[in-house]
Specification:
Chloramphenicol Acetyltransferase; four-stranded antiparallel β-sheet
Length: about 425
């Protein structure tokens, strides 16, 4: 009996996905609940598991785009575990093998068989015409690959040396014997996540009137608390005490004071929210994702830090779900972890505000007429000017500044 493997429904608005990776290979024996493949959608990666034991037969390749509900392979449940190593090659592989065999028969014999795999056609021609020994050519391409430029350089080296040894009849010095730089390029398709990021960023620029306002915050108070309690905090809660928990709390206090920054636009109506779902931007190898801490106003700083650690781990492991990324009302992006001193973050539609954090840097500032050195951080608030006025945006940042510079006031919610 053969059981079809279909692309599962992964979200209400998602109609297609990309085969990011086949974890199990064609002809391999798989067991129930084994991860067969990883699908990449517009918003997240989804694992597809086997529903039965049996022999896997794949019907699509990695990188292919498939519709929801499409058949991407099947499992032969009548096969035994010992069949995995001696399974017959599917017809698609046979065809590819036959084509490859005929193609090899039509090609001209090479002076060096290994060139067939490592050299481009143009490079092969130069090597053969000049009877070059490839083991003597230093490759400058990816992975030490010999490029056309490398072959040309090797072919021209004797001539270049002869020119350099000839007596010069002018005051112009000869060119140095520089290795010809490689001009080769390579392409790779954008992942669906990267395509979606690009689409949403352009959409935000085209549909919202984005402005950014700036302020700075003295981090001395928060850093003192963190230094004093970080060991006992981690021992009790099992997570490190970071700065993001304080900023989430400060942002919630500011959002309560200025509810438009927590709202969104729907046509000609303003949609106010009496909850605070805070998105935290997380960088991954595949791109930036923004998992959402739901009802963050009900959480303690310890709960917020645990949530951030949980979602960051899921994002980096490629296990973030659609629900994890949905329903955010406000976003915080910390470019300071990458060393950014100042930036203008872009809105995450349909949200109307995003807070940008930056690196902490000691700077001289004036306090009560005295110049002192304090750990300072620039804050940036990008907002949709269609809904939020300049005065509101400035006061919003001032509220965050006040909360962060007087943490007791924030924790007491005054």
């Amino acid at each position: 009996m053969k059981v079809e493997i279909k692309v599962p429904a992964v979200g209400e608005s998602i109609t297609e996905a990309t085969i990011a990776e086949w974890v199990k290979q064609n002809g391999e024996f798989v067991h129930r609940d084994d991860v067969l493949l990883v699908l990449e959608t517009d918003k997240a990666s989804v694992e597809v598991v086997a529903e039965n034991d049996g022999l896997l037969s794949t019907a699509v390749n990695e990188g292919d785009t498939v519709n929801i509900g499409a058949i991407v392979g099947e499992i032969d449940t009548s096969a035994s575990n010992t069949a995995g190593s001696s399974a017959k090659v599917p017809s698609t592989e046979k065809t590819a093998s036959v084509k490859s065999h005929h193609a090899n028969q039509t090609q001209a014999p090479m002076a060096h068989p290994e060139l067939q795999q490592h050299l481009s056609p143009a490079t092969k021609k130069i090597v053969e015409e000049n009877q070059l020994q490839i083991q003597n050519i230093q490759g400058s391409g990816r992975g030490g690959r010999i490029t056309k430029g490398d072959a040309l350089q090797a072919a021209n080296t004797p001539v270049a040396n002869a020119i350099q040894q000839a007596p010069s009849k002018s005051d112009t010095p000869p060119l140095p014997n520089i290795k010809v730089a490689s001009q080769e390029t390579y392409r790779e398709p954008m992942s669906r996540l990267r395509q979606t990021i690009a689409k949403r960023l352009v959409e935000a620029q085209h549909t919202a009137a984005i402005l950014t306002t700036f302020n700075e915050v003295d981090m001395s108070g928060v850093m003192k608390i963190r230094s004093q309690y970080k060991e006992s905090f981690e021992k009790k809660h099992g997570v490190k005490l970071g700065f993001m928990g304080f900023f989430v709390k400060a942002a919630i206090e500011a959002l309560k004071a200025f509810p438009k920054v927590n709202a969104s636009l729907d046509g000609t109506e303003i949609v106010y929210k009496n909850f605070h779902n805070i998105g935290i931007a997380v960088g991954t190898e595949k791109g930036l994702v923004v998992p959402v801490i739901k009802n963050a106003e009900q959480l303690s700083i310890a709960d917020i830090e645990l949530s951030i650690k949980h979602y960051a781990g899921k994002a980096r492991d490629g296990k973030i779900s659609i629900d994890d990324l949905s329903d955010g009302t406000f976003t915080i992006s910390n470019g300071g972890v990458y060393g950014s001193l100042l930036s203008t973050p872009i809105l995450n539609p349909p949200q109307t505000g995003i807070l940008g954090l930056h690196k902490i840097e000691e700077r001289p500032i004036a306090i009560n007429g005295q110049v002192v050195v304090r750990p300072m951080m620039y804050l940036a608030l990008s907002y949709d000017h269609r809904l939020i006025d300049g005065g509101e945006s400035v006061q919003f940042l001032v509220k965050i500044k006040e909360c962060m510079e007087d943490p007791a006031r924030m924790l007491l919610e005054i």
